[in-house]
Amino acid sequence: MGIVYDTPPESILAICDTPDRVEHWKQVKARYSLLYAALQTYFTGEVSPLQDLPDSEQELAMAHRDDYLALYALIHDGWKYISPELEKIKSERGVLKEVKTPGGLFHRIFIDESFWDFCQAFRGEVGMNDWYEFSPGSRRKNYYQNSKDHLLSSSSASKTKPEQAKLARYKKRLEKQVNEDKGRLLRYWCTGLIQKKAKSQKNPLYRKLKEYEQRNSEFNALIIKSMHHRYIPNSYSWSRGKKVLRNK
Fold it and tell me: Which of 7, 24, 179, 213 gives the lowest tally of CB atoms within 10 Å of its CB?
């Protein structure tokens, strides 16, 4: 898979002007360094570093790796669809000009997502309000509501007017979430493109798409499970470089 860029980069420590930002950088750096090492050993056949994690952490870490592996397989096998469309948007995103292969695009997604996870401590400096709040309770509530609405949207049965209104709200909510999750826009762009191209079960990519959706769903479900109040008792917020713990 080649060599990934330093992410989040060491150079960014120079602007980590509070102890909380420095600590956050260390945590994100450790998580993605371990994840990337796990991806590398998967392809080289060496022993995975995830085996050294405590049992309580292995399942989520392995699901995170498997989500990326399924994404890579989708990009790799869907490259004939992705490559022409990628050329059309390179002028809009300068960093994409160097992307010429499926592996290169995967690296770019990995870099973007790891950097965005770090950037919650710098929301005021990356085009958003100088405020970020994380609430496990709200995150779980949104997840379960989205899961119910997704089942409704996937059903082939005719929809009542109340159900149609609910699906319209669901679509707007998803669009809002995608637009706010800027670091994962490239992932969403790729998967959305393949979804349009592989609608038919006769398309060879259809199975890869479903495999990716399954791995992604499993990973998200484990994230929500890890947010139970037994494990994460507090909400927290970031404001002006300080991380403040709050009640549930």
Answer: 179
Distance CA 62, CA 68 (A): 10
H helix intervals, the chain = 19-44, 55-77, 79-89, 102-118, 136-154, 161-180, 185-197, 205-226
The CB density around residue 157, as the number of other CB atoms within 10 Å, is: 7
Q: What's the one-letter identity of residue 15?
A: I
- Count of Cβ atoms closer than 10 Å to residue 135 Cβ: 18
Give the chain's length.
248
| CB atoms closer than 10 angstroms to residue 36 | 20
CA atoms of 79 and 238, how far apart (whole Å): 39
pLDDT band at 81 (very low <50, low <70, confident <90, very high): very high
Sort 224 into a burial class: Cβ within 10 Å, 0-12 / 13-18 / 19+: middle
Are residues 219 and 67 in contact, defined by beta-carbon separation less than 8 angstroms? Answer: yes
CA quadruple 5, 68, 140, 209: dihedral sign: positive
Using the predicted structure, report yes or no on whether residue 194 has a pLDDT greater than 70.
yes
Dihedral angle, C-alpha 198, 204, 210, 215, nearest 10 °: -120
Predicted confidence (pLDDT) at residue 92 exceeds the cutoff of 60: yes
Q: Which residues pair with 61 in a beta bridge?
A: none
CA dihedral 10, 111, 219, 153 (to 10 degrees): 140
Going across the sheet that includes 242-246, the strands are 132-134, 235-239, 242-246
Neighbouring-strand partners of residue 237: 133, 244
For residue 104, give the nearest of 118, 120, 123, 90 by alpha carbon.
90
